[in-house]
Design a protein that fits this description.
The structure is a single chain. With 450 residues, the chain is α+β, with helices and mostly antiparallel strands. The protein has four domains: 87 residues; 101 residues, Beta-Lactamase (2-Layer Sandwich), CATH 3.30.450.20; 76 residues, Helix Hairpins (Orthogonal Bundle), CATH 1.10.287; 153 residues, 2-Layer Sandwich (Heat Shock Protein 90), CATH 3.30.565.10. 51% of the residues lie in helices and 21% in strands. Strands 2-1-5-4-3 form a five-stranded antiparallel beta sheet. Strands 7-9-10-12-11 form a five-stranded mixed beta sheet, with helices on one face. Helix 1 packs across helix 2, helix 7 runs antiparallel to helix 8 and helix 9 crosses helix 10.
């Protein structure tokens, strides 16, 4: 670095610039013609102004640079903040969707009302139970959707008004189509992190199936008690019946062949036999089914029973009844109690014949039923159909109930005993029927249930 007169670097350059600027101003201010010249003082003042302007420009330039750096830093910070915000919003959406999926996956109905009693949330189970869609329910008053006749103290509106939760109570509400549904329900307040009340929530479960099962259990208990009583009565009746039958046989032996009183004795004997059948049915129904399962060809068993039944000309050919068979092509082996299932097949055949007083077609089918609903193994289906008088809806509903009968002298235990035997084999029996066109009884049971 060179030094002249003790001045160097920027100061030297600035001094040189000022000297050049003054020289140029002096040259241009030299009188030529009529142009007025500038005084030295004005030139110095102008020079100082120029220098100050240069310094100001330089400071502005430096400030701009700093501002640009600060802007870039702020821009980077803003980008980071925006990224974190996007991640936070994405996480919030994920959590919201997760919670909504949980709500829609619940088997319990869930609804939320705001402080005005307007529904703000209605999950999928609530839709299924009430028949209202979430779109229809949200934005409407609770009473409009759940029913005006629901007592106030059985609603989340009561919880809103009193702050008292309701736990595991029962009530009935009307669905969209007007049906009545029994519910088990609970309510509580909805609050935020500062305990400010935002509304109330109600959870509810459809009790229709539970109530139906309760009725079935009550019915079964009543029938069990009735069965026990009937069994006791049957035992008491059977003993004197044996004596009556014995004395009637002795009386018939002592009467002459042409004695008109023999007909009266035969009526006594027939009555005793009828009572004995009733007693036997009662005892059969009252006692548990004790199975002795054997592995057999079910088609062979059915065919043997049908052949024996067909020889009974009073039940078939003389009454204009034709009997047809349709069996699976190959043998169907299964484990059943042959004696018990003989009774099932015979009872179904007798019922079919009795349903065709004017004659008709009796059809017996044995088919491979595929997978059974009560077992992972294969199943067999037995179907006995007739073209008789058919059944009303009431008869179809109650035909397997004990002591239900449409026959004048029936006990109502035939089909009940059949169902009991089929149930013991882990099977299912059902009926299809059309009034005036006939009925079909269908028995499906697993091949190997033991």
């Amino acid at each position: 670095m060179q030094r002249r007169n003790g001045i160097c670097g920027p100061e030297k350059d600035r001094g040189r610039g000022e000297a050049i600027f003054k020289k140029e101003i002096h040259r241009k201010s030299t009188p030529t013609g009529n142009r007025e010249s500038l005084s030295p003082d004005k030139i110095d003042a102008f020079t100082d102004s120029f220098v100050l302007f240069n310094r100001t420009i330089k400071k502005l330039h430096q400030a701009y640079k700093k501002l640009e750096v600060r802007f870039n830093n702020l821009n980077l910070e803003l980008e980071k903040t925006n990224k974190r915000l996007r991640q936070s919003l994405a996480e919030k959406d994920r959590v919201t969707n997760y919670l909504n999926d949980i709500l829609d996956s619940l088997t319990s109905g869930v609804l939320v009302v705001d402080l005005k009693g307007v529904i703000t949330l209605f999950n999928r189970a609530a839709e299924q139970i009430t028949g209202w869609s979430a779109q229809e329910a949200t934005g409407h008053c609770y009473s409009h959707i759940m029913g005006e006749d629901v007592p106030h103290n059985s609603t989340p509106l009561y919880t809103l008004a009193t702050g008292a939760p309701i736990v595991n109570r029962e009530k009935e509400v009307r669905t969209k189509d007007g049906a009545t549904v029994p519910l088990n329900y609970s309510t509580s307040l909805v609050t935020d992190s500062r305990d400010n009340v935002l509304g109330a929530v109600e959870t509810f479960v459809d009790l229709s199936r539970v109530k139906m099962l309760e009725k079935e259990v009550k019915k079964v208990n009543n029938l069990a008690a009735l069965g026990q009583m009937a069994a006791t009565v049957a035992h008491e009746i059977r003993n004197p019946l044996g004596g009556i039958a014995g004395f009637a046989a002795l009386l018939e032996r002592d009467l002459g062949r042409n004695d008109p009183r023999r007909g009266l004795v035969r009526k006594i004997t027939e009555g005793v036999a009828s009572l004995n059948r009733i007693v036997t049915d009662l005892l059969t129904y009252a006692r548990p089914v004790n199975l002795r399962p054997q592995r057999i060809d079910f088609i062979k068993l059915v065919d043997e029973v049908v052949n024996c039944f067909e020889t009974d000309v009073n039940n078939c050919r003389h009454e204009g009844i034709t009997l047809s068979r349709r069996y699976a092509a190959s043998p169907l082996y299964c484990k059943v109690d042959p004696m018990q299932f003989r009774q099932v097949i015979l009872n179904l055949l007798h019922n079919a014949v009795q349903a065709m007083p004017e004659g008709g077609e009796l059809k017996v089918e044995v088919l491979d039923g595929g997978l059974c609903c009560r077992s992972s193994e294969g199943s067999i289906t037995l179907k006995v159909s007739d073209t008789g008088i058919g059944m009303t809806e009431e008869v179809k509903t109650n035909c397997f109930a004990p002591f239900f009968t449409t026959k004048e002298n029936g006990t109502g235990l035939g089909l009940a005993n059949i169902k009991k035997i089929v149930d013991a084999h882990h099977g299912i029996i059902s009926v299809t029927s059309e009034l005036g066109k006939g009925s079909s009884f269908i028995v499906t049971f697993p091949c190997d249930w033991v």
